[in-house]
Structure formats: structure tokens, C-alpha cells
Amino acid sequence: MRSLGMSPTIAELKKYLKDKSGKMTFADFLDTLHTHNQVEKVPDEILDAFKAGDLQNKGMIPAKDLKHILGKWGEKLSPREVDQIFREANVSPNGMVKYRDFVRIVCAPAPDYY
């Protein structure tokens, strides 16, 4: 779960395993991921981080600043990965990004291709 960007506590992990009688199928794991995602509220946390840096409360960030953050902070993304995210989120590299819309797009569940 941590490799997927989540931060469950040891107690939460033990509870999830206990709920599945100590064994978990892949389907159980996916269900647990969904459950835990509801607990963590990752989009809200990311939005709060953007708001903390938005001293003028405009709801926007320059694309060049977002590119810098994605490429230099935390899990550093490559320029290619940042460009791909910008394309998928329809972000102009020289424009302004409405961070609420950006968070909604990048935190949306991956499409089901089954």
C-alpha cells in the first residue's frame, strides 16, 4: 500500500488482515485499497497543501511552479512524467493551473480497461 502512495499505520494494516482472516486475495487487496483511500482522503490533503502555498487565495498556481514542485519535491518525477501529467490534465506549460481542477483530474480513479 505504501508503494502506491498510501500511509496506513501498523494498526490499520493489522486490522485489514484480521478482517480477511489473515489472508488476502488480490480482490480483497483492491477492496482494502479502496477502503483505505476513503480514510486517507488524499485529494483533500493535496488540495490543503496547495491552499497553504496560495497566500493570495487565487486558487491557481503558475504551471512552471507546479512543474518545479513535481520534478524536485517528494517523489521526484522525470520531465517526461511531468509532461505526461500536464498533457493528461490539459495543462499549458506557460499558463496558470486551477489547482482544484488539477487535483480532481490527477486523483481520479484509473479507468477500468477490463
Shape: elongated
Cα-to-Cα separation, first versus last residue: 22 Å
Oligomer: single chain
Largest sheet features: 2 strands, antiparallel
SS-based class: mainly alpha
Widest sheet: strand order?
1-2
Mean pLDDT: 86
Question: How many strand units?
Answer: 2
Task: Outline the structure in words.
The structure is a single chain. The protein is mostly helical and 114 residues long. Helix content is 57%, strand content 5%. The chain contains six helices and two strands. It has helices at residues 10-19, 26-40, 42-53, 63-72, 79-88, 99-106, and strands at residues 60-62, 96-98. α3 (42-53) packs antiparallel against α6 (99-106). The longest helix has 15 residues, at 26-40. It is elongated, with a radius of gyration of 17 Å. It starts with 9 loop residues before the first helix and ends in an 8-residue tail after the last helix.
How is the secondary structure organized here?
Layout lengths: L9 H10 L6 H15 L1 H12 L6 E3 H10 L6 H10 L7 E3 H8 L8
Antiparallel strand pairs: 1-2
Key features?
114 residues, mainly alpha, two-stranded antiparallel sheet, 2 strands
Q: Outline of this structure?
A:
With 114 residues, the protein is mainly alpha-helical. The protein has helices at 10-19, 26-40, 42-53, 63-72, 79-88, 99-106, and strands at 60-62, 96-98. α3 (42-53) runs antiparallel to α6.
